[in-house]
Amino acid sequence: MKRASIKDIARIAGVSVATVSYVLNKKEGSRISDTTRKKIFEVAETINYTPNKIAKSLKMSKSKLLGLILADISNDFYSSIARCIEDEAMKLGYTLLIGSSDETPEKFKKLTELFSEQQVDGMIVAPVVNSDDAINKLIKEEYPIVTIDRYLKNVNIPGVVINNTEISEYICSYLTEKKFEEIIYVGYDTKLPHLLDRQEGFDKRISSAVNYKKVLTGLHNIAEEVYEGLENNLDLSKKTALYFSSNKLGIAGLRYLLKHRIKVPEDVSVIAFDETEAYRLFPTEISFVQQPLMDMAKEAVRLIDSQINNYINDGEKVIFPAQLMAKDSVR
């Protein structure tokens, strides 16, 4: 007869393997509710669970593993911040497990389940649209979790973001003062709050004296949709500025300009979000919005470590200021 395992208990009780491990190993300071504890002990008794003493001795201490779920690790922004988080986590003795959700809630959910099975001590995540249920499940299981770069409006957990609204307001004012006849905002047609904050900040400050256009793309066919949007909206007879609200949009836009031999800043001015090596390949130095990656990483690791060790879960949000790095691409 097969020996009952903590995976069996977790499946029957409807909680994570990590939660069962916390309860059965009687770890001090855990935030797991009495109701959940009682249910786990009842299931364990019902299926005659007998702990493996060797495995138990190995799991009495923390795993010193952290899960990091990003939208796309191939994106320069996320690969850079992952490296910063890894460096900071290692200083505290943690090893990082990293996964990309590819902007899909199904893959995001699978990664949370996988990391939970690996018994990570906590997770740092960049939420995707419709990932609320997966995150709420972790919260219900009282799992240490922190958001990075992004947040969800209806989920109150600790997180690290930048001042998306304010920096876009500043960029808009900066461009308006340059007396452009036309400004084109290139962003996303999305429900992600941090990206909507960027768009709303720009909308808030745009002058009625400027011809204002928007090119909004999906998250998956960026290059094609940016090409089409610029083809239909860019009027080189006017003094025009382009604001790309992410590095992926910026790279796609710059490729379009190169392909059509449109000069920057002679024919059009450009500001893009985030620093990326791809900008360095362009003939003109591109003005960009710089995010304080190291500061964000340090704070995310601090927040997750605080939860793991002290079980703090007060929904603390830490907002860092981004800044415009003005180069030669705006005239």
TrEMBL record:
Domain of life: Bacteria
Record's keyword terms, sorted: DNA-binding, Transcription, Transcription regulation
Lineage, broadest ranks: Bacteria, Pseudomonadati, Bacteroidota, Flavobacteriia, Flavobacteriales
Gene3D superfamilies: 3.40.50.2300, lambda repressor-like DNA-binding domains (1.10.260.40)
GO molecular function, one term: DNA-binding transcription factor activity
Entry keyword Lipid metabolism: no
Residue ranges of every copy of the HTH lacI-type domain listed in the record: 4-60
Annotated InterPro entries: HTH_LacI, LacI/GalR-like_sensor, Lambda_DNA-bd_dom_sf, Peripla_BP_I
Name this polypeptide is given: Transcriptional regulator
SUPFAM superfamilies per UniProt: lambda repressor-like DNA-binding domains, Periplasmic binding protein-like I
